[in-house]
Inverse folding.
């Protein structure tokens, strides 16, 4: 195991930012941390890179405890923070070179590594350009390669593509995939597509706790295999109607929710359940269905299901 997190807790005053979480990351894996704002993702990552001390519990990076061996842990890690930490007055080369020096790399090693990394992300032409003259996407690419400048075993990426356009985001995904052949990666993101594309496994955090941990594929399978989307005129649909549909389909749907002017019904097999769905709709007066669509769940659906706006109520029980 590259990273092992054990009963990790972080308390700020009266806020429990990380509430006794456990997970481990295998060598070579891309592991995702998902969750709404304030869920505890950054705090978890900051503890892993020894910038914050755990209140209790511990985390191990390549076997070294963040409590007892923070120096060893830092040697094993590369980090890209949520907020940029580049020196914008320095050039691209200088930012990378400084980082290499901090990690005790020799001059020749630094030179060749910088050449290799700039080529990897197509920034060769910007080598001697001041960072303040780069676009947001270029800066992000530079931060990612700076994170792996000293060839760490583990790379921590806190929202690596925050605020980037769709095309640049994809370019960075490609680079992350290339890098991941040599490095174990832990990343946080709010883009479900990003998690789905990159991550071998994801942990969904909420209020400091991990509420689900699995591969994106298994998480999607867990919430039902297909989704029936019924769209209505906005005036036709409300929570009461949703409740009526939900009651009419008890036992057939795994999850039902309202999404704008549509009811989304998660089922094992849409074609098998569709007649019952239409029957339930017939019993509701003054309701006109504008459209019926059947689609496969995305990680976004998982996320919304786990965020607890369920009408089936079975996500809330237990622990
Ligand atoms: N230094 C701090 N002092 C006090 N409270 C903090 C501190 N850092 C984080 N918190 C609190 O801890 C909780 C978790 O914050 P954290 O930054 O880990 O969330 P996050 O999942 O990274 O959210 P986001 O998606 O917005 O980046 C929040 O309630 C936040 O206000
Ligand atoms: Mg954060």
């Amino acid at each position: 195991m590259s990273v092992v997190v054990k009963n990790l807790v972080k308390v700020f005053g009266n806020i429990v930012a990380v509430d006794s979480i456990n997970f481990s990351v295998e060598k070579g894996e891309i592991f995702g941390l998902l969750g709404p704002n304030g869920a505890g993702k950054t705090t978890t990552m900051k503890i892993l890179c020894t910038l914050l001390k755990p209140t209790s519990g511990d985390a191990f990076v390549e076997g070294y405890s963040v409590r007892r061996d923070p120096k060893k842990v830092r040697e094993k890690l590369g980090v890209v923070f949520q907020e940029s930490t580049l020196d914008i007055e320095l050039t691209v080369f200088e930012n990378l070179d400084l980082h290499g020096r901090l990690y005790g790399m020799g001059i020749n090693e630094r030179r060749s590594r910088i050449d290799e990394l700039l080529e990897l992300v197509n920034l060769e032409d910007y080598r001697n350009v001041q960072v303040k003259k780069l676009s947001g996407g270029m800066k992000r690419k530079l931060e990612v390669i700076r994170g792996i400048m000293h060839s760490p075993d583990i790379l921590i990426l806190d929202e690596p593509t925050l605020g980037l356009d769709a095309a640049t985001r994809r370019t960075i995904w490609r680079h992350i995939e290339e890098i991941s052949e040599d490095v174990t990666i832990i990343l946080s993101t709010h883009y479900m597509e990003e998690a789905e594309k990159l991550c071998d496994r994801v942990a969904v955090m909420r209020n400091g706790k991990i509420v689900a941990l699995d591969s994106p594929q298994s998480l999607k399978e867990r919430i039902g295999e297909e989704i029936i989307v019924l769209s209505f005129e906005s005036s036709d649909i409300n929570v009461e109607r949703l409740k009526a549909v939900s009651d009419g389909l008890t036992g057939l749907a795994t999850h039902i929710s309202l999404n704008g002017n549509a009811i989304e019904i998660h089922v094992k097999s849409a074609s098998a359940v569709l007649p019952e769905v239409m029957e339930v709709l017939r019993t509701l007066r003054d309701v006109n269905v504008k459209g019926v669509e059947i689609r496969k769940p995305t990680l976004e659906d998982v996320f919304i299901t786990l965020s607890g706006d369920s009408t089936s109520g079975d996500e809330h029980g237990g622990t």
